């Protein structure tokens, strides 16, 4: 099976990560403003932006490391410190990607709940409720990610003969460190590793991918129900533009998450049972390509919020201006 096109696409992953990091940094600056930290959904959006930044950091650093190594006369293996950094970074990426799924579901649930029970609007949209939700979901996600540390360890391997550029000696060698299954991870035919992969597949990928469409359908039903009642409080609420932006993000997350994550969940389940078959059909390459789609989706949060939310646009305009003591504003050039 020819998967060269997938590798060609993934070649641009560091470039996409760099652009996404820049866009999400701007998005984060807007969301941390006092005028934006006024509701639970905005707090969740803030947590999602932080998750996206954490996810995009490692590909950028890894690409810069490769560029730096390419300028050396000999290609060196990764140092022990960098292997530890990669180990931690992979766990963080796994954690924040799962956490983003949980947060997106929470945002959709809050949106649906507020539409269904407008009398409980204040409680469900309070900043404290959003902060507690983010903290609880992060802790739950971290429990699954922590198993990764228990099932893997860093081991030194035999000295590796270095590949040097023309004109340099190839007699130099260096020790190489690799990430391998730990003793606990290999125990009882890799039982804990398999359990971790199955838990990760269901809780991080399959369940969210199934719940997203269900939650979206419930949200659509509630929106139509609210629109049919012109006197409903939420229908005339001044924050309707902000809620509309939240709804758009929910729809977008549903489409992209089901497309990119459900196949990954199936891959993880199959991988826990039969590794050889997956390698033979190169299924992992397709999973990596779908992750590229997930990275691409993170670029849309900023423009959607900017286009749909009056509160968001006002905050952006406020950041682009200097305020004088007299109260007038001067454009920041």
UniProtKB/TrEMBL annotation:
Upper classification of the organism: Eukaryota, Metazoa, Ecdysozoa, Nematoda, Chromadorea
All copies of domain G-protein coupled receptors family 1 profile, residue ranges: 23-306
Subcellular location: Membrane
UniProt keywords, alphabetically: Membrane, Transmembrane, Transmembrane helix
Residues that span the membrane, as ranges: 12-31, 43-61, 101-117, 129-150, 202-221, 249-269
PANTHER family reported for this sequence: G-PROTEIN COUPLED RECEPTOR-RELATED, G-PROTEIN COUPLED RECEPTORS FAMILY 1 PROFILE DOMAIN-CONTAINING PROTEIN
Protein name as catalogued: Protein CBG07869
Domain of life of the native organism: Eukaryota
Molecular functions (GO terms): G protein-coupled peptide receptor activity
A Gene Ontology cellular-component term: membrane
Coiled-coil boundaries: none
Main location, first listed in the record: membrane
Gene3D superfamilies: Rhodopsin 7-helix transmembrane proteins
SUPFAM superfamilies: Family A G protein-coupled receptor-like (SSF81321)
């Amino acid at each position: 099976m020819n998967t060269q096109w997938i590798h060609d696409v993934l070649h641009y992953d560091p470039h996409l990560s760099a652009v996404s990091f820049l866009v999400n940094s701007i998005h984060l600056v807007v969301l941390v403003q006092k005028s934006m930290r006024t509701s639970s959904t905005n707090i969740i959006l803030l947590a999602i932006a932080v998750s996206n930044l954490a996810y995009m950091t490692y590909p950028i650093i890894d690409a810069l490391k490769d560029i730096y190594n390419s300028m050396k006369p000999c290609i060196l293996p990764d140092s022990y410190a960098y292997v530890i950094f990669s180990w931690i970074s992979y766990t963080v990426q796994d954690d924040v990607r799962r956490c983003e799924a949980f947060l997106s579901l929470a945002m959709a649930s809050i949106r649906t709940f507020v539409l269904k029970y407008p009398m409980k609007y204040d409680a469900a949209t309070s900043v404290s409720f959003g902060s507690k939700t983010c903290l609880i979901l992060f802790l739950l996600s971290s429990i699954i990610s922590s198993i990764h540390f228990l099932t893997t360890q860093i081991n030194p391997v035999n000295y590796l003969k270095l590949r040097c550029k023309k004109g340099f000696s190839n007699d130099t060698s260096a020790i190489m460190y690799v990430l391998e299954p730990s003793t606990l991870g290999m125990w009882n035919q890799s039982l804990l590793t398999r359990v971790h992969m199955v838990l990760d597949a269901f809780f991080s990928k399959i369940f969210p991918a199934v719940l997203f469409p269900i939650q979206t359908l419930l949200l659509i039903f509630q929106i139509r129900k609210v629109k049919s009642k012109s006197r409903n409080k939420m229908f005339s609420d001044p924050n309707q533009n902000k809620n509309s932006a939240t709804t758009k993000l929910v729809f977008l997350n549903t489409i992209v998450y089901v497309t990119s994550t459900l196949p990954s969940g199936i891959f993880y389940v199959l991988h826990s049972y039969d590794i050889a078959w997956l390698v033979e059909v190169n299924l992992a390459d397709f999973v990596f390509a779908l992750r590229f789609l997930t990275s691409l989706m993170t670029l849309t949060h900023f423009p959607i919020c900017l286009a749909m939310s009056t509160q968001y646009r006002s905050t952006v305009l406020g950041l682009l201006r200097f305020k004088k003591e007299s109260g007038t504003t001067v454009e920041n050039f």
